[in-house]
Design brief:
alpha+beta; 475 residues; globular; 3-stranded antiparallel beta sheet
């Protein structure tokens, strides 16, 4: 649809003798041509469709122009393509490519019921915000907020997507548990000042297995990091073991998760282990002192970092119910000593202390990259609506957008230069492609920019996706 032209000719310097004339008259052009790859991923995973099935629609069918599936797809694809705000959709609703991604049969919106809506195939912000503002308990009788989300169904979906990504059950998996701050700048429900982070925030709990997101739980910040971790881990282990009964599971976290409840729960399960950091204290440091003295002597001689490892049985006087295996890292850097400790129930005979610390525990740092992808690239920290429940819905939408981009990375980008790229890089280099859209009776023509520099990667991804079967829609 041709939009009203805005003349900008006066704002640009000429090129030699040529004037540079700029106008908003290009017609149906999108900056997100690569989003079609996300649609191909969705055809092979049905992640967005399964997320939409977690909503219950109480609207009267005769009044509906946008199905729940279309609304959810519009919101999730918008986040994946970099549009964090619902306000963005008052313009995006006119983007025919986003309409194609949302499976709108009329991507130009020429058949909308109201004349004022024609030319805009998608929903505006006022319709989309019903996804997050609906209260499930009152949805059936509400006037506007009538699309209710089932949080338990979404929690189950996150794990199902992880399980479906494996052709066979692995022998071992590691569940990384961590909390982070989500700063808030208004009077949102559940906001509290957190002394460690130094600002008002939420304290979401994340659990990943490698790059797979399993839990994204928004919490008020008036609690410790480990609050609710046992319940989440127990739910995950139950669902995972239902499909993979013999898998061995390691729970990994920093010292904020070194709590008796979590350690004891793991010990009470078959083939569930933990590798968790332990906060330094005087007793632990005294136990490590001989190894630390050796490392100090080596560092003084070589002027390079030196480390020794020492393991021992340790039980705090009050907080632990039993003595447990603790591994101490006696490290001395040129700037001074840097002792660290972990606790585990993995047997020493098969898991030596140094390898356990260096190869298993230290690898948990990669989870920080996954959290950054969630918070920064998928806008999981855009929790600015009034209620904790509505902000949890936003976090779920960001989480599903992450699942979609991760599936693109896992299924399409393997073997390419972007195989390990983060979500923000994938968006910039693979999805943000200028394209002209032309809709005819039989075809949607998408003319991608001839100057796009990653055409070979684009073709590589498409070829890999085409080698995978298309999954049929749910009945």
């Amino acid at each position: 649809m041709q939009t009203e032209c805005t003349q900008l000719a006066e704002g640009f310097q000429g090129l030699g003798r040529r004037a540079v004339v700029v106008q908003f008259d290009g017609g149906t052009i999108t900056s997100d041509g690569g989003g079609l790859l996300l649609r191909e991923v969705e055809q092979r995973t049905r992640i967005v469709e399964r997320f939409a099935a977690c909503f219950t629609d109480h609207r009267r069918p005769e009044y509906i122009e946008h199905t729940v599936g279309e609304l959810v797809a519009q919101r999730v694809y918008g986040l994946a393509l970099g549009y964090e705000d619902l306000n963005d959709h008052d313009q995006l609703r006119r983007d025919p490519l986003l309409a194609v991604l949302a499976e709108k049969r009329d991507p130009l919106g020429t058949t909308r019921k109201r004349a004022a809506d024609r030319g805009a195939a998608l929903a505006g912000k006022s319709t989309l915000n019903r996804l997050e503002l609906t209260v499930p308990e009152t949805a059936a009788g509400a006037r506007y907020q009538k699309i209710a989300l089932d949080p338990a169904a979404v929690d189950q979906l996150l794990v199902e997507v992880f399980l479906d990504a494996h052709a066979a059950a692995p022998e071992w998996i590691i569940l990384d548990v961590d909390a982070t701050d989500d700063p808030v700048h208004g009077q949102q429900e559940g906001r509290f000042f957190h002394g460690y982070y130094g600002h008002y925030c939420y304290l979401p709990l994340y659990i990943f297995c490698g790059e797979h997101l399993l839990v994204a739980r928004l919490r008020a910040a008036d609690r410790e990091a480990a609050a609710g971790a046992v319940e989440e881990v127990e739910r995950l282990v139950t669902q995972i073991r239902a499909r993979w009964p013999a898998v061995k599971i390691v729970v990994r976290g920093d010292s904020g998760f070194c709590r008796e409840r979590l350690l004891a729960w793991c010990e009470a399960q078959a083939e569930v282990f933990y590798v968790v950091g332990v906060a330094r204290n005087a007793r632990l440091e005294r136990e490590l002192q001989p190894a630390l003295a050796q490392a100090q002597q080596e560092c003084a001689t070589t002027q390079r970092a030196a480390r020794r490892f020492h393991e021992f049985a340790y039980q705090p006087r009050e907080s632990w119910s039993r003595a447990r295996r603790v591994i101490g890292k006696a490290e001395v850097l040129p700037g001074g000593p840097n002792p660290r400790f972990i606790v585990t129930n993995l047997p020493a005979a098969t898991h030596p202390g140094q390898l356990l610390y260096e190869l298993v525990y230290c690898a948990r740092g990669d989870m920080e990259n996954r959290i950054k992808e969630q918070q920064l690239a998928l806008f999981a920290d855009r929790t600015s609506t009034a209620t904790l429940r509505a902000n949890q819905v936003r976090l779920y939408c960001a989480s599903v957008a992450y699942l979609l981009l991760h599936a693109l990375r896992r299924l399409g980008l393997a073997g390419s230069a972007l195989a390990r790229a983060q979500c923000g890089t994938i968006r910039t280099k693979l999805l943000k492609i200028g394209a002209q859209i032309r809709v005819t009776v039989r075809k949607v023509w998408v003319a991608l920019s001839s100057a796009y520099p990653y055409q070979a990667v684009f073709a590589h991804v498409l070829a890999r996706l085409h080698a995978l079967p298309v999954v049929g829609r749910a009945p």
